[in-house]
Amino acid sequence: MAEMTLHTELPADMTDTRGLPGVQPEHGPWLRVDEAYAAQIARRIALLDDVPEQVLYLETASQGAAQELLHEALNIMPTLGFTVEGAQVTCPDGRKVDVSSTAPLEALGRCLQNDFVMMEKRGDEHVLTGAVLCFPASWSLAEKAGRPLSDIHIPVDEYTENVARRVQRLFDGVQVGRPLWRFNQLWYQDAELHQPRSATAPLRVGSNLPDGPFYRSERQTLLRLPLSRAVIFVVHTYVLARADVPELR
User: Fold this and answer.
1) Which of 96, 119, 192, 219 fits as disulfide partner to 236, beta carbons 3.0 to 4.6 Å?
2) Is residue 13 a contact partner of residue 24, using CB atoms and an 8 Å limit?
């Protein structure tokens, strides 16, 4: 299945390398459907069916924010080839999902290619309060759930104390209706989308393996929900074979 999930190209604006945090205004859609939809959604459904405890998390107090996120997504989905009739969603591959009988983050995970990570302000920092994370890039949702930004990025070498302060200011400044985005770049030994890794495990994949045959890039859009004020990471994962990777500037 891994080969079937490959993309053959990147969006043009994802070939210009920028340093951390590398954020700019998002002028395109924050939800996307592309040529890898069928294969990626099949992998997502398998994970949601087989290992939901690994890919879903939601604090009880954040149920309202999760429902708000689903509502925002439902408003956009008809522009992406979905049919939304009340609580019934018909997906681009013909599947029907009843979002009224499915938990909101799981419903999003069964409809869309994107992963969604909810961050809410708790004291001085934003905390991970909910997620549907089927395609982690070498981190573990179980280890990061309920933790603040400063802990989530440990032990990323590039994530210095200065960068941490800048990222927290960025989260504080995200405005409703004005999403931001960034992307990362990693090389992997295989094309598997589900790549969880404990923070205590050796790093076997990633940017320190530039000879890897597969290039993986996440388009991470940050948006603020208008009612709950939660900040959402919307992550669209691209995986390309080395031969298809454009020249990166």
Assistant:
1) 219
2) no
The token pair at 120 is: 């809410």
Task: Give the SS3 label for residue 168.
Answer: helix
Stretches in the chain below the pLDDT threshold 70? 1-4, 17-21, 152-164, 203-210, 248-249
pLDDT for 201: 79
What is the DSSP annotation of 197-240?
Answer: --TTS---SSTT-TT-SEEEEEEEEEEE-TTT--EEEEEEEEEE
- CB contact at 8 A, 180 and 231: no
Rounded CA separation 177/212 (Å): 38
User: What b/e sequence results for 98-114 when a residue is b if at least 16 CB atoms lie within 10 Å of its CB, and e otherwise?
Assistant: ebeebbbbbbbbbbbbb
Alpha helices in 102-207 (DSSP H): 104-111, 141-144, 149-152, 161-173
Q: How far apart are CA 10 and CA 237, in angstroms?
A: 10
Model confidence, pTM: 0.90
